[in-house]
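>> received
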Amino acid sequence: GDFRYVGLRGLESQLWPGTTIPALLFMVFQLTFAIIGVAIISGSVVGRIRFSAYAIFSAFWLPLVYAPVCHWVWGPGGWIDAMGAKDFAGGTVVHECTAVSALVLALCVGKRQEAATEGQQAHNIPFV
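>> returned
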């Protein structure tokens, strides 16, 4: 690609190619998947890192990992799309990509600082 839409410049009056959907609306729809991906990964590091560190990780993960995988699967000319894969519900991008990222991050960070010991129980069993 190129940088013609950097800062969402020029999208306000365009339609998404091949549809009648405004490009900005489609961008917001895609952004919800990105937010869900960040939320899924957060479960792997709860109690292991500070929120500020996680926010920094998310800021780097979204453009460096999530965005390329989105293009590969959903974008024009993406190599996974070219193989014939159809991902209508986001299984490849959202679930597989975030699951692998969550596992790698959890392995890199290590065990929780306050690992559960005998006698300690979860605060709310149904939520665990």
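>> The mean pLDDT is 84.
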